Amino acid sequence: MIQHKYIDGICLGGGIGAAALVIWLLLFGRQVIPAATAAPGYVSRLFDESRVHTIDIRVEDWGAFVARAEEKEYVPCTVEIDGTEFYQVGLRAKGSNSLRLIGEYGLSRYSMVLEFDHYLEGGNYYGLDKLSLDTSFQDNSYLKAYLAYDMMDFMGVPAPLCSYTWVTVNGTDWGLFLATEEPEEAFARRNFGAEYGQLYKPDYRSLSAENADVALRYIDDDPDSYPNLFDNARFSPTEEDKKRLIAALKTLSTGENLETAVDVDQVLRYFTVQVFVMNWDSYLGHTGHNYFLYEQDGIISILPWDYNLAFGTYALGMPNPIRDPNIIINYPINTPAEGSVMLNRPLYHNLMQNETYFQRYHAYFDQLLSDYFESGRFETLVRQVEKRIAPYAEQDPTAFCSAQDHRQAVDTLVELCLLRADSIRGQLDGTIPATLREQEERPGVGVDASAVALEDLGDFDDLRAAREKQEAALEAVLSEAGN
Asked: Alpha helices, DSSP H only, in 167-210?
């Protein structure tokens, strides 16, 4: 029993103080207690873009992890981010074609996933449940994904946060990676609030299959007809969730009353950027994947993902890959894919059949060109980021290219984007053909891009040349572990 001659006064004072605190919080608490939708702690930490961050991955057997990377199985690790340690974090390699090709070329620099709640329920990095480390595969500039996400954000499309980080493995240098917020619970909460909807990452099981669900085509009312959607849900969808999504796809298929099923404005903004960056490893490409689908209250929208093969450098899976920079940089904005692909991509095609939406799509292109490119914002941003990451790119022990190749790739990407902006400006004002048919009727009309060497952005020759360097970096990690 507590004995104090002033105990009654203390208790009374404590009670009054507690009551006052409750009243104060009720009246003013919203000013100091972050709401569930307020910016979580990870936004101002790892995703502070003003500097290059540090991540040390401590794993028991790095050699075994690299050797079994293509299995994409998780292993536990300790992660130190900017000096703060996190234990029992799930680590695995990520990717599809990039994962396969890195293995085929005998390389070891894989993109990776760090999942903080894989082994520990509720585990997180200041509110973030999962992040990925992008290896910049076939991207000698290290800038493709960064720029694509920045453009999406600029146009008001919910996009993953990203920042550059210097990765070490068990204290030994491994390279410069792009840390990216993975779209899961934290991403959904940050962008859509505590009562967020359903999130899917549609993906094909086989390229030879029809994959109608990946293309967001309505098949029938049976959820079992959409395995590439529902088997790739980020959250566990209920039967009602499935019915709502199927109903939205059914409405989309009709081309009528689209605003009852589609967040039209957001989707148009997304396609504006998507078409600008010429990303054919995407919904508008032959594979039709590499995007996220968000649904809430029966309204669907599309979210950006995976841009290492953007800016005209995608060739995997295409029957006749486009190599001519004049064709790529002048690629038409009104028919950004072949007819057989366009007709099977209702989220783009059916919206563009509506004249009001079509004109809004053009208006968003005008906004992107005027405010992002023609204003000088784009070049300023690129040169700022280039200066920030240059020292790290120069000493990257597992880089797919040399420091000189990196500098050349940055300059090439800048030139490509500015020429692409000039071409689209011409397409908007009618001086350059804006459809594939018009281009056939007026061959050779467009900006002259013959001086652009697309292979400077990253090619298969770089993979062959990187093998010796990456073998040495792997050996350095393993040797240090042996000591």
From this structure: 185-192
Alpha-carbon distance of 278 to 164, in angstroms, equals: 23
452 Cβ contact partners less than 8 Å away, ≥ 6 residues apart: 325, 329, 412, 415, 416, 419
Q: Which residues contact 188 (CB under 8 A, 6 or more apart)?
A: 196, 197, 199, 234, 235, 294
Q: At what angle do helices 377-394 and 403-429 cross, to 10 degrees?
A: 160
> What sign does the CA torsion over 142, 145, 146, 151 have?
positive
- Cα–Cα nearest to 362, from 435, 305, 417: 435
In 3D space, the residue among 348, 343, 376, 219 whose CA is nearest the CA of residue 279 turns out to be 348
Strand partners, 125: 128
Pairwise CA distance, residues 308 & 466, whole Å: 17
Q: Whose structure tokens read 């002033």?
A: 6
CB-count burial class (<10 Å; 0-12, 13-18, 19+) for 142: buried
Closest alpha carbon to 317 in 39, 100, 28: 100
CB 126 within 8 A of CB 42: yes
Position 477, amino acid: V
Of 131, 116, 123, 72, the residue nearest 96 (C-alpha) = 72
Rounded Cα distance between 131 and 113, Å, is 6
Distance CA 184, CA 115 (A): 10
Report DSSP state, residue 39.
Answer: P
Q: In this structure, what token pair is assigned to residue 381?
A: 């941003």
Summarised one tens digit per residue, pLDDT across range 407-466 is: 999 999 999 999 999 999 999 999 999 999 999 999 999 999 999 999 999 988 899 999
Cα distance between residue 124 and residue 46, in whole Å:
13
Which of 213, 185, 210, 212 has the alpha carbon at shortest distance from 197?
Answer: 185
Q: From residue 288, how far is each of 203, 345, 459 by CA, in Å?
A: 8, 8, 22
Nearest Cα to 290, choosing from 268, 312, 263, 309?
A: 309
Task: Report residue 255 as tokens.
Answer: 């081309």
Residues 6 or more apart in contact with residue 38 via CB below 8 angstroms: none
Is 466 within 8 Å of 107 (Cβ atoms)?
yes
User: What is the number of residues in the chain?
Assistant: 483
Q: List the beta bridge partners of residue 77.
A: 89
Grade residue 145 by pLDDT with cuts at 50, 70 and 90: very high
Q: For 299, phi and psi rounded to 5 degrees?
A: -110, 130
Q: Environment class of residue 236 by beta-carbon count within 10 Å: exposed (0-12), middle (13-18) or buried (19+)?
A: exposed
User: Is 311 exposed, middle or buried, given 0-12, 13-18 or 19+ CB atoms closer than 10 A?
Assistant: buried
pLDDT digits (tens, 9 = 90+) for 82-124: 999 999 999 999 998 889 999 999 999 999 999 999 999 999 9
| CB-based contact 391:55 (threshold 8 Å) | no
